[in-house]
């Protein structure tokens, strides 16, 4: 399916596709887009069941989510793009790099793990059950609490905005994507990533801990690793200036 999208920035610039995390939408990137727009053609999209993209059922695979990006690129006549994904978006990016390397120039994986250990899988089962029983409001508070540092959570307006994103996600979209993430199994294949990769993580990210992402860097040929100070899981929201500079610098390297 072709997801809802927005295009901005330089019409003739290098295309950069931004893929958000679970239970957010393309507005997650708002704070870093202005810097990217000065150099690139920026394409943001809403994953199935998020933002303005309909859910299309409640059972997806990562291959489905990767396929939606390829469909979007074909729709926009983009042969090859840079891709920046956070959390779920980063997992989609790894799938693109492994299955469609010819369509990528550079890949930035933000705050995302590459495998699904048993505790991770069980956590998704619990969240799916909670959402089915009580709607998205049943998980919005705990979700935002996990995502951010204590410093960020002292700002009620910021917390309320992020809870609003979680609660605006459709139940089918959340459940479908969570089911896809439960089957995450890219770590054993990272040595097959054939595009330049940057792994970027908040220093206080509990969902994709820095040591785990350093291990992913070690397993990926030629990959880079950067850590953002004073940031949790949604690092581009918590420290947008630092994140946008690191991302822009990496994407600006000629290949």
Would you write up a description of this structure?
With 255 residues, the protein is α/β, with parallel strands linked by helices. 43% of the residues lie in helices and 15% in strands. It has one domain (5-251): Rossmann fold, CATH 3.40.50.1820. A 7-stranded mixed beta sheet has the order 1-3-2-4-5-6-7, sandwiched between helices. Helix 4 (118-134) packs antiparallel against helix 7. The chain is globular and about 50 Å long. The two termini are 31 Å apart.
**CATH architecture heading:** 3-Layer(aba) Sandwich
CATH superfamily: Alpha/Beta hydrolase fold, catalytic domain
Strand content: 15-25%
Strand order of the largest sheet: 1-3-2-4-5-6-7
Q: How many discrete structural domains? A: 1
- Average pLDDT, rounded to a whole number, is 97
Span between N and C termini? 31 Å
How helical, in percent, are the residues?
40-55%
Tell me the structural class: alpha/beta
Number-wise, the strands total 7
Succession of helices and strands: EEHEHEHEHHHHEHEHH
Please work out how many helical segments DSSP would assign. Answer: 10
CATH class reads Alpha Beta
Would you tell me which CATH topology applies? Rossmann fold
What sort of overall outline do the alpha carbons produce when their principal axes are compared?
globular
């Amino acid at each position: 399916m072709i997801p809802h999208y927005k295009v901005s920035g330089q019409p003739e610039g290098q295309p950069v596709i931004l893929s958000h995390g679970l239970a957010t939408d393309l507005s997650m990137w708002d704070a870093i887009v202005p810097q990217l727009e000065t150099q690139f053609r920026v394409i943001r999209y809403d994953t199935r069941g998020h933002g303005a993209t309909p859910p299309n059922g409640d059972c997806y695979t990562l291959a489905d989510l990767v396929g939606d990006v390829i469909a979007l690129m074909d729709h926009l006549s983009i042969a090859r793009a840079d891709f920046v994904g956070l959390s779920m978006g980063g997992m989609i990016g790894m799938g693109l790099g492994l299955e469609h390397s010819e369509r990528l120039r550079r890949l930035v994986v933000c705050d995302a793990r590459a495998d699904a250990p048993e505790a991770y899988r069980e956590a998704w089962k619990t969240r799916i059950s909670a959402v089915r029983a009580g709607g998205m409001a049943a998980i919005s508070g705990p979700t935002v609490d996990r995502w951010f540092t204590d410093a960020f959570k002292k700002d009620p307006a910021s917390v309320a905005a992020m809870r609003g994103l979680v609660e605006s996600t459709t139940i089918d979209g959340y459940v479908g994507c969570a089911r896809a993430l439960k089957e995450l199994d890219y770590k054993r294949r990272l040595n097959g990533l054939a595009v330049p990769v940057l792994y970027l993580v908040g220093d206080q990210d509990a969902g994709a801990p820095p040591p785990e992402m350093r291990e992913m860097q070690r397993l990926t040929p030629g990959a880079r690793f950067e850590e953002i100070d004073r940031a949790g899981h949604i690092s581009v929201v918590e420290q947008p200036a630092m994140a946008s500079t690191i991302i822009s610098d990496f994407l600006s390297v000629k290949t």
